[in-house]
Amino acid sequence: MVEVDSIVEGKVIGIAKFGAFVELEDGSKGLIHISEISNQFVKDVNDFLKVNDRVKVKVLRVSPDGKIDLSLKRVVDEEKEYATKLEQSKATLEQKMSRFLKESQEKLASLKTSRDTKRRR
């Protein structure tokens, strides 16, 4: 059984005016409501999904009667958020490396200066 908040893969097995039906890897079936397909306005589900499309979806809810609510847009949002955090951490790493190199060069220059001063004596 799928767990709420997990991201799973599945195949679109049906399209309706109100959403798309997806068969998940474990054989269970769920619905991506039209409001959970995209952050853009979705007038027609067929403009975004086709039968047999492979999709990655987030499990929003599993009701006691076994109905599974899915979201396509929340997977995209999470992937964008992850990419943003990754870029931020890379920038932070680059800043740290830059500061380290600058400080190392300053210390090296200072050591050379003190060594040259000692030689002159």
UniProtKB/TrEMBL annotation:
Transmembrane segments: none annotated. Residues 76-121 form a coiled coil. The keyword Mitochondrion does not apply. Signal peptide: none annotated. Pfam families: S1. Keywords: Coiled coil. The keyword Coiled coil applies. InterPro entries: NA-bd_OB-fold (IPR012340), Ribos_protein_bS1-like (IPR050437), S1_domain (IPR003029). Residues 5-73 form the S1 motif domain. This is S1 RNA-binding domain-containing protein. It comes from Thermatribacter velox.
